[in-house]
Amino acid sequence: MKTKIKLCGLRDKESILAGSDAHYIGFVFYQKSPRFINALEAKKLRHYINENQKLVGLFVDADLNLISHISETLNLDVIQLHGNEDLSYINEIKKLGKPIIKAIPINEHSDIMRARKYEKLCDMILFDTKSENDVSGGTGISFDWKLLKGYDSQGEWILAGGLNEENIIKALKITKATFIDVSSGVEKSRGEKCQKKIKSFIDCVKNYEKEK
């Protein structure tokens, strides 16, 4: 499968096992999120992530010491920043020696231009739907994918925001994304993943690539 898939906000063993074909598994360490998991629970679940997958820790304007502690405790592969982190803050995070994903909320074309200042500092840019109430993502709402048409990044970028089995093929065709992130689109209720939806989403992407 050429398209990389990141499953975000997982909190149980069954969902991790259902997503064994995904490339990245994301844990959310943001207490206001319905997908929040604490470091102790996350460490127990770490064992179910297979050796071919990378573990991503998602943080929102978190204390640097907290990120360092969780990164070390869980041996995170990637750190995802999903708040209003500025460049000096990100420079401090870089000292932990982990790849960084920086989420950029999107509503209009100027938001995409905002991503440029992060491109050199961060390893990956993630485009998510802009929402006033939920900076941590997972709103289930898509933004206008046409805004990303022809987007040319210096590094890798990730498409997120309201992706699900029904719209993922359309999203891939419009944006030509090679890396996607899904959270609410594979849930049965807010914050609770559905193993069947996880498998269906991954199969949908696999089948699309076979037919291309």
Layout of strands and helices, then pairs:
Elements: E1 4-8, H1 13-18, E2 24-28, H2 39-46, E3 54-59, H3 64-74, E4 78-81, H4 87-94, E5 100-106, H5 109-114, H6 116-119, E6 124-129, E7 156-159, H7 168-175, E8 179-182, E9 187-189, E10 192-193, H8 195-211
Name of the CATH first level: Alpha Beta
How are strands sequenced across the largest beta sheet?
7-6-5-4-3-2-1-8
Q: Tally the helices: what do you get?
A: 8
Radius of gyration: 16 Å
Average pLDDT number: 93
Integer tally of domains:
1
Helix content: 25-40%
The SS-based structural class is: alpha/beta
CATH-defined topology: TIM Barrel
CATH-scheme architecture: Alpha-Beta Barrel
> Secondary-structure element order, as H and E?
EHEHEHEHEHHEEHEEEH
Describe the overall structure.
With 212 residues, the chain is α/β, with parallel strands linked by helices. It has a single domain, classed as TIM Barrel, CATH 3.20.20. The protein has 8 helices and 10 strands. Strands 7-6-5-4-3-2-1-8 form an 8-stranded parallel beta sheet. Strands 9-10 form a two-stranded antiparallel ribbon. Strand 4, helix 4 (87-94) and strand 5 (100-106) form a beta-alpha-beta unit. The mean pLDDT is 93.
Key phrases:
32% helix; alpha/beta; 8-stranded parallel beta sheet; 212 residues; 8 helices; TIM Barrel; single chain; 10 strands
Short synopsis of the structure:
By secondary structure, the protein is an alpha/beta fold. Helix content is 32%, strand content 22%. It has one domain (4-211): TIM Barrel, CATH 3.20.20.
